[in-house]
Write a structure and sequence with these properties.
By secondary structure, the protein is α/β, with parallel strands linked by helices. It has two domains: 9-133, Rossmann fold (3-Layer(aba) Sandwich); 135-230, Winged helix-like DNA-binding domain superfamily/Winged helix DNA-binding domain (Arc Repressor Mutant, subunit A). Helix content is 36%, strand content 23%. The chain contains seven helices and twelve strands. The longest helix has 21 residues, at 113-133.
């Protein structure tokens, strides 16, 4: 995959064992646009799900077997998307996964590492294309191609190019604070302290737009050197 805008993709590896994670971690200089984080169970992941943002969840079938896994546990995967299941041909739950996990991709064992990474690339490229068409921010839909943001009640705000770039960056961080330098780089392509005052001016105007149409339902919050969205 060609890394765009210095983007780093953080991938969650959910696997009782450490072999797959260790192999990937050893290859981090080769796949330097990926950051791998290992979890030994779905529960461990859920405990930190709202503290970290992941681009993809890779679920090895070491945690899906007839001894310790119940089909009801499939509900745990609903909020964990996009997903890539790694499944053995003789896995007890293989057929049910294929039927019930329509938003997932399935990678059959055994597999080559380069094919595994290729599948991750394809999944993330597909996700990036969807993000470009529509970005969900709470109950609001940000449409980059139309330069507008739309509320659930179909109230629309037209955006300038810079306002759009600001909302795209803030929306991608899901309520987390983003440094001014990162926002400046998103808008102008380089980190430059000279843009700080200009950025503040654009955010001031964008705040007024959001407040006039959406009230306090969608706000840009700030603290020293950072901004975030509240919704």
């Amino acid at each position: 995959m060609i890394k765009e805008n210095n983007q780093m993709y953080k991938i969650a590896i959910i696997d009782k064992g450490t072999e797959l994670f260790s192999i990937l971690d050893e290859q981090k200089d080769v796949y330097n646009y990926y950051s791998w984080v290992h979890f030994k169970s779905i529960n461990k992941l859920i405990d930190t799900k709202f503290e970290e943002n992941f681009s993809l969840y890779v679920i090895n079938d070491t945690i899906i077997n007839h001894e310790s896994f119940d089909i009801k546990n499939l509900n745990d995967f609903k909020e964990i998307i996009p997903r890539l299941f790694i499944i053995s041909p003789d896995n007890w739950y293989r057929d049910r996964l294929l039927k019930n996990q329509l938003m997932s991709k399935i990678l059959n064992k055994p597999f080559r590492l380069n094919y595994f990474v290729k599948m991750i690339d394809e999944t993330l490229k597909s996700q990036d294309k969807k993000k470009l068409s529509t970005i969900k921010i709470g109950s609001y839909m940000l449409k980059p191609s139309e330069k507008k943001i739309i509320s659930k009640s179909n109230i629309k705000i037209l955006l300038t190019d810079i306002e759009l770039k600001i909302l795209v960056k803030l929306g991608q961080h899901d309520g987390e604070y983003v440094k001014k330098e990162e926002l400046s780089k998103q808008v102008w392509g380089i980190k430059n302290s000279d843009h700080t005052h200009t950025l503040q001016t654009h955010i001031y105007r964008l705040r007024k737009k959001l407040l006039s149409k959406f009230g306090d339902k969608l706000l840009i919050k700030s603290k020293i050197g950072k901004y975030s969205l509240k919704y």
